Prior knowledge:
This protein is an alpha+beta fold. It has one domain. The chain has helices spanning 51-65, 79-91, and strands at 26-33, 38-46. Strands 1-2 form a two-stranded antiparallel sheet. A hairpin with a 4-residue loop joins strand 1 and strand 2. Helix 1 (51-65) packs across helix 2 (79-91). It is elongated. It starts with 25 loop residues before the first strand and ends with a helix.
Amino acid sequence: MSKLRGWAEKGCKSFTEALGFRTKRITLIGGYCYGTKELIAPMEYDGYTNTEVFLSWVEHCLCKQLKSNQIVIMSLPINKLILMVQKTFRAMPR
């Protein structure tokens, strides 16, 4: 949201670069390969990331682009989600 008040010289309008209305949320999720320093399995979508979106990204995008002997490190504090991802990895054909 933009500010309702701001500083300007007397008789001049105060302008801001912030939008005065809400826009849609565009989310980008992807993996980073440390060895080659490239982004793998990028996915862009409208809305928020929930468990279903994350697991479908892991199954349909990330698993297909991983090579053998690559390690996935996630910085998520959610133990239930990590267990669901492990089940997804085990169910994938090799």
